[in-house]
Write a structure and sequence with these properties.
Layout: H1 2-36, H2 41-55, H3 62-96, E1 101-106, H4 112-115, H5 121-130, E2 134-140, H6 147-158, E3 163-166, H7 171-177, E4 182-185, E5 189-191, E6 196-199, H8 202-211, E7 216-219, E8 225-226, H9 243-246, E9 247-248, E10 251-252, E11 265-268, E12 275-278, E13 281-283
Parallel strand pairs: 1-2, 1-4, 2-3, 4-7, 5-8, 7-12
Antiparallel strand pairs: 5-6, 6-11, 9-10, 12-13
Length: about 290
C-alpha cells in the first residue's frame, strides 16, 4: 500500500511537471501569435478563449487539457461557420434582396480561405449568387501580397461567379465608368465607435466610394469588435517586411537600397461606412458601444 502511494505521488509530480511544461509552451506560442498579427482581433479572441479554458481550474492530467482545448477549438471553428452564414443571410434579407443583379467591388480575401466558413464580405457575395442573383465582382488585386488576385479570384472562379481583377489604384476609374452597386469589405478590428482596421487600401477605397456615392459596407463577426478602443487612432497597425514592397516573387523591382513602407492595414473612419453587417444584425454608424 505504501509502495502504491509512492507511485501515485510520483505520477502526480510527473503530471504537474508536464502541466507546467504545457503552460510554458502555451505562453511561448501565445507571445508568438500576438506579435505576428497585432491588428487582428479575431486571432486574439480565439487565443483568449483557449486561455480562459486552460487557466480556469487545476487539471488532473495533461490529456484532459488536450481534449478540452481540442473541443474548444472545434467549437470556435463551428461558431465561425455559423457566424459567416448568418452575416450573409442578414445582408441578403436586409440589403441585397431587392435587386436581381449586382456589380460589387471587394478588397483582399474574406472568403472560406480567410474564415473557415462561407466568408464575411465574400460570403455575402457567394450567398447572393446561391440565391439566384446575378453577380459580377471587381476584385482589387490587393498589393503587395495579392490576396485579391490570388485568393479571392480563385474562390470566385470555383463558385462560378463572374469577376474581373483590377489594380488597387483602378477603383476610382471603375466607379466613374461602371455602375457599382456597393463595395463590401471585411475587418480585422473594429473600435467601439465603428472605425475599422482592414487590409491596406481599404481606406482609399472608402474615400473613393464616398466621392461617387457608392454604398460602402463592412462585414464582420462581433468577435472583431474591440470595445476597449474608442477610435481608430488607438489601433496598433502591423508593419511588415519592406521586401514585400521592393521585391516581387523574390526579384528586386526597385533600385537597390530604396526605402519603402509596408503598413499591412489602414483604418477607415466610421463616417465613410454605410453600415457594419454582423451575425447579430446590420449596425448603423457611429456605434457608441461604450
Amino acid at each position: 500500500m505504501q509502495y502504491l502511494n509512492k507511485i501515485e505521488f510520483h505520477n502526480y509530480e510527473f503530471q504537474l511537471l508536464l502541466f507546467q511544461q504545457v503552460l510554458i509552451f502555451h505562453q511561448h506560442r501565445n507571445s508568438f501569435f500576438y506579435k505576428s498579427r497585432p491588428t487582428a482581433k479575431n486571432l486574439f479572441y480565439a487565443i483568449e478563449r483557449i486561455d480562459d479554458l486552460i487557466y480556469q481550474k487545476n487539471y488532473s492530467d495533461v490529456d484532459e487539457i488536450r481534449q478540452l482545448v481540442e473541443k474548444e477549438a472545434i467549437d470556435i471553428h463551428n461558431c465561425e461557420i455559423q457566424a459567416c452564414l448568418s452575416i450573409a443571410q442578414i445582408a441578403y434579407d436586409k440589403i441585397f434582396k431587392q435587386k436581381e443583379s449586382y456589380n460589387f467591388i471587394t478588397h483582399c480575401n474574406t472568403g472560406s480561405l480567410a474564415t473557415g466558413g462561407l466568408g464575411t464580405a465574400l460570403g455575402i457575395i457567394k450567398y447572393i449568387h446561391q440565391q439566384g442573383g446575378k453577380v459580377h465582382v471587381f476584385v482589387d488585386e490587393t498589393r503587395p501580397l495579392l490576396q485579391g488576385s490570388r485568393l479571392t479570384a480563385y474562390e470566385l472562379q470555383k463558385e462560378k461567379i463572374p469577376y474581373t481583377v483590377i489594380t488597387d489604384g483602378m477603383a476610382a476609374q471603375i466607379m466613374a465608368t461602371n455602375s457599382i452597386d456597393a463595395v463590401i469589405v471585411g475587418a480585422d478590428r473594429i473600435t467601439s465607435m465603428g472605425d475599422v482596421a482592414n487590409k491596406i487600401g481599404t481606406f482609399n477605397l472608402a474615400i473613393v466610394s464616398n466621392y461617387f456615392n457608392v454604398p460602402f459596407y463592412v462585414a464582420a463577426p462581433v468577435s472583431t469588435f474591440d470595445l476597449s478602443l474608442k477610435n481608430g487612432k488607438e489601433i496598433v497597425i502591423e508593419m511588415r517586411d519592406d521586401s514585400e514592397v521592393t521585391k516581387f516573387n523574390g526579384v528586386e523591382i526597385t533600385p537597390m537600397k530604396s526605402k519603402s513602407m509596408n503598413f499591412s492595414f489602414d483604418v477607415t473612419p466610421f463616417e465613410l461606412i454605410n453600415a457594419i453587417i454582423t451575425e447579430k444584425g446590420v449596425l448603423s454608424l457611429p456605434l457608441n458601444l461604450i
